[in-house]
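Feature request disguised as a bug: please show the residue count (210) next to Thioredoxin domain-containing protein 9-like protein in the output. Example input:
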Amino acid sequence: MDRSMVQEIVEKQVLTVAKAVEEKLDDELHALERLDLDDLEVLRERRLKQMKKVAEKRSRWISLGHGEYSEIPTEKEFFSVVKASDRVVCHFYRDNWPCKVMDKHLSILAKQHIETRFVKIHAEKSPYLAEKLRIVVLPTLALVKHAKVEDYVVGFDELGHTDEFSTEELEERLAKAEVIIFEGESSKLKSKAPSKSVRQSANPDSSDSE
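Example output, currently without the count:
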């Protein structure tokens, strides 16, 4: 057989094999591309479901009064509040300066932690609750999870024994009790301004003394 003919046959075979390999690779690439698209679609649907679930939960929280710091007018309503929300911070207060300091911090945290209901109730007008929960020192925060008081923040003893504690210090204490969802230095990152105590930012002359 002529050498040129042999070379031509070999070249045709090589081209045929190369074409077959190329077609196979193309098929595999298309399959991989299709698989990636399917995976992305699955992830997209999963993400949409998660977002919808979060939106529904957020809407429910807002309907229950989350996102703001409000007062409970009666002892009866206290039980309704703790049954409706999984996490509740209840401030037992009276009209004095330490309780006003606590009010300022809780007003800030209520907006930052919509997952938790922040409320206050006048201790002297709630004798049954005060006795049942053994509220003696004011301010006292009752930390409620799933309708059960799990922990207390009594006065400022755990906050540096001073009314000049920062909102972040109180936030960390509430996070320790797992009554809020805390992500490190989230509150500090929300404001570029240096952290101030409430006393530094408020006028003590305008408040009641203890």
